[in-house]
């Protein structure tokens, strides 16, 4: 808008000149540069005018977007390099001796671009030699002064760009004195004002000046005579140190654009601002304004007004006079009430009110018929006026971070809204799961609600986590039994818990833990039938089985963990005990904890056995209550991390802001004093861990802030700098990511709650505690979501007892839909809701899977549990359950089982046997394998891409089954990518995970990349493969001590001229990893590009460049970068930046 407002009059004097570097466009994007484009001749340049307009339009939009949303700062993207920073200054062309006839030719030159040439001085004679010049571009050099004589004779000069230099002052202004014809002057991004006043009074004598850019300097004053610039239309003085609004500006009657943003202490505007009657654009972001003068309301030509980042509490009464205003930004102010005057602005198209303190919106908002953009995020709004649905032109509606529970009826009418943000609101109608899918889904929900009665059914997911033998199963049993009001603990039986129920009936499949099939599982019977009391008599007190990947440094102290010191095959519990071996995988069941209030918990119990890590992560989702269980009798402070700290890291990496309730079991086995001490210790260590993590993140925010405070050029010129070369945009994203992590720390509800299943009182207390947490509207605002009755009936019908199959076809589901009163066209949105809320799986966008509804989650989990089974006997028993199997076949099957446990490989026909009776036909098997592939749990190793297997047996690899073969075969060109002697260059991108490496990530990633690679060879921690003909290696390296976190790296190699092939090989893998990591929104990790020079030398500690460079374009003109670890040695830029930037940035969460 800023440029649009300038209209077409700007360049009448320079019609045949190249796209001019206007003050505004300059801020967005540097001009073309590079040796081959150092100068243009005017004839050639004339052709560029139409294209130039298009470019300008684009820049305008980008500039505006940046100003509006990102705040101000250094321009992004392909900034010109400071050519001298890495290569030393090339000899300035202008310094060469000038002789005829060359001199004569130069004398006719009209436009000269010397940007980014590392110039430190301007030769005195340059002006005399180039007297015909009309455009001179000297931006991005190192000029610290302008010799008086240098620009003399340039009386025809109309545009001069001196931005991005090191000018500290202009002396007495002698250098500019001769430039009487100048219309455009840019002095932005210098150091003007550092010495003396910064600007000479004679600046005011450039009386033909139309555009003046003085932004990003250190100016405290503007020359008094500035007001004499009668033709000045655009003035940028933003990001200086002006202590007040400069009065000379009030005389600039022709001014159409004024940018004073970023002068933090401007404080107030004078009444006299009304004199600027032609002003169309006024930007005053971050200027410390606490009020606006009435005079502002007389700026009747105003179209764009930026007032964000001030301290405004209200607008002046006459604000409604700004009848031409199209864009108003009032974000980040102190508005407690919606400024009513805004409603009188009929032309308003964009309104930004983010980060204020608004609670209500006026019903008359709908008067703003032209409104296309409405940003209201991070306020305290509770209700939206019904009339908001009449804003038919709305395209952007941002409401996140408010208190909105209900969207007005007819909200679906806002069908033109494409940018829609609603998260962080306590939505119940429609529920969050519907809202986040977008306006069409909201429309479908609301139509459905109009068709059928609303239904309220509070259900909360309750997830039990903790180490093996922490006491989760018994705790669950006690709680659920307590609900049954029985007094005799001894009569508790595992089988008495309620599995997922259909409408009014128990569902058989959950009657025993879903990980166990009653007829096949040897432990099933023993676990299910032993009364609790009996189990208590044989308590294995000292057992602690730590996650295998908890780094040893995390386990403090010397006391060895009892279980870790046992031989691998030693029995862990005395045989014959009730819960020998613990639970398997995941168990799910419904628990009606409060029948009166109808509150149901869907309980997910995640077994402590780490083999189930990969599948368990799928069931950690937002909006659940997590109960972290610790065995207090076995707890010692040295084991805090594996028994508590690790779980908090795990939970919060997957579920930011997770609600965690700490429960300490086995309280009956601890003396009172011991109990107190242990609970206190856990409490304190949680606080310490939290403090450490938060402080770490805080200091990262600070580092990013410091980097942002620096000039982008400076950051690019110093390879030692923390964020060398990282654009402001990426830095801001990084900061936003850190802040997100800081603002979404886990919510740990109370100190540890001691618990003993022997003590009925404690059981009851825990149950009451869970209920009160669940009912707490601030913690679980979504609990009381409103559903159309038809959706709820549909859900119930899908879970009725006869629906024992693993999936339903779309048609079967549609039949149930009809029973629920849903016609087929309305079924999809209901299924989509049930999928989003974790009730069933329905992949509406998957070509094959969308024909099916996987409604039986317990059964599916049962299947997942089988694939995580590490016990050969159990697997074999499943395979041999068929009585017709002869001895030979049995031996074969045994081999398959061994192969599976050793390499994670299984052929399809054996999988089919394993999944009996759930899977019958080959088609069924095919479908379930597609589902598992979609979930990223396995891939087919021998399926030719896109073709079915021709009768041959398909083999599947389950990469999370830890491959016992430590290293993959390093068969790529018989080289080892970490080796020493290389003719070729190496590329290596390294992801580091300082807090936690998400369990199962390597396995999931290994599946995810399968479609990109061929001829792979997998080891425990490595994958060697090819992308086309180019080798790639993916390796995971577990943490070694606290200073070296877990890393995952992706590497390839090629000769320098062919290095693009290596980039082509690794960038899709990098992008795949970036996408996968979005499943862990609370995870902190960093990405780096390793220096290939260091790698080549075999350095054990190679220098790292920031991974953000991967998503940035290669800086034009830059060929080499200094590697600080190699002194002055340089790395080719092609070894640090990919030829085309990656689409996803590592910090774009
Ligand atoms: N005395 C006593 N024993 C308990 C208590 N809670 C659990 N136990 C016993 O501790 C052992 C382990 O309990 P489980 O409930 O199976 O542990 P878990 O956390 O489910 O373990 P996994 O399923 O392996 O992850 C069992 O023998 C329980 O009987 C308790 O509060 N007091
Ligand atoms: Mg258990």
UniProtKB/TrEMBL annotation:
Quick one: a GO cellular component term? cytoplasm
> Residue spans with biased composition (Polar residues)?
12-35
Q: Which PANTHER family match?
A: MULTIFUNCTIONAL ROCO FAMILY SIGNALING REGULATOR 1, PTHR48051
Q: Per the database entry, which stretches of residues form a coiled coil? A: 672-707
Q: Name one Pfam family in it.
A: LRR_8
Residues annotated as domain Roc: 453-777
* UniProt keyword terms in alphabetical order: Coiled coil, Leucine-rich repeat, Nucleotide-binding, Repeat
Q: Which InterPro entries match?
A: Leu-rich_rpt, Leu-rich_rpt_typical-subtyp, LRR_dom_sf, LRR_domain-containing, P-loop_NTPase, ROC
Q: Where is this region: Disordered?
A: 1-39, 66-98, 485-508
Name of this protein: Malignant fibrous histiocytoma-amplified sequence 1
**Organism of derivation:** Patagioenas fasciata monilis
| UniProt keyword Nucleotide-binding, yes or no | yes
Q: Which GO terms describe its biological process?
A: regulation of signal transduction
Citing just one GO molecular function, the answer is: nucleotide binding
